Task: inverse folding
């Protein structure tokens, strides 16, 4: 049994490209970065904490499967070593997109897989680069009114209308969206879940 520790529809859609059946069990955690915490350490810690929170939530179930694998992920937009979270207001969104305008930033996506006991746990972090064209303040305001950037890290969605700002990417597109498919398939195989085998069987 595979459990996705995320409420993200994007991660659910991406994982469904690799495995036919899984359960979604999101768990709320405190996503505040620690003081002076490097972005890479932060995203790795977030994925691990999401996985552990899902394990604890699952253990409260009476109907438990004996063999369960939990998968969690975290994505952060980083510019000048600073993590850009989700915008709290239009002004916040303006500040983020102005910082990203006309330059290259990093998107870090971590992945954590663990079993029910926590004895087998693996993590990985994928670093990607995204280059934006110059964005005008008028475009930023128009984009905000679409509603898309309001719950997105860095105030944009590369898989949506935010793609009009993206000049180029270097790395994994699926990781930037929220789940690195190559690395996910590699780690799932370590837990005995083989994507090609799973998806080719009726």
Result:
């Amino acid at each position: 049994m595979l459990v996705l520790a995320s409420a993200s529809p994007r991660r659910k859609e991406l994982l469904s490209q690799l495995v036919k059946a899984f359960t979604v069990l999101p768990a709320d955690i405190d996503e505040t970065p620690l003081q002076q915490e490097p972005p890479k350490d932060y995203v790795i810690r977030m994925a691990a904490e999401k996985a552990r929170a899902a394990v604890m939530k699952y253990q409260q179930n009476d109907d438990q499967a004996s063999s369960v694998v939990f998968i969690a992920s975290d994505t952060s937009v980083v510019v000048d070593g600073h993590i850009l979270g989700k915008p709290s207001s239009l002004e916040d969104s303006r500040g983020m997109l102005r910082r990203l305008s006309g330059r290259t930033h990093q998107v870090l996506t971590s992945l954590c897989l663990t079993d029910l006991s926590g004895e087998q746990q693996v993590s990985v972090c994928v670093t990607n680069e995204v280059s934006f064209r110059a964005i005008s303040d008028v475009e930023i305001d128009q984009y905000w009114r679409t509603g898309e950037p309001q719950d997105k890290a860095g105030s944009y969605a590369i898989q949506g209308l935010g793609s009009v700002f993206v000049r180029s990417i270097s790395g994994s597109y699926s990781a930037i969206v929220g789940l690195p498919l190559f690395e996910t398939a590699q780690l799932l195989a370590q837990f005995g879940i083989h994507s090609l085998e799973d998806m080719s069987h009726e």
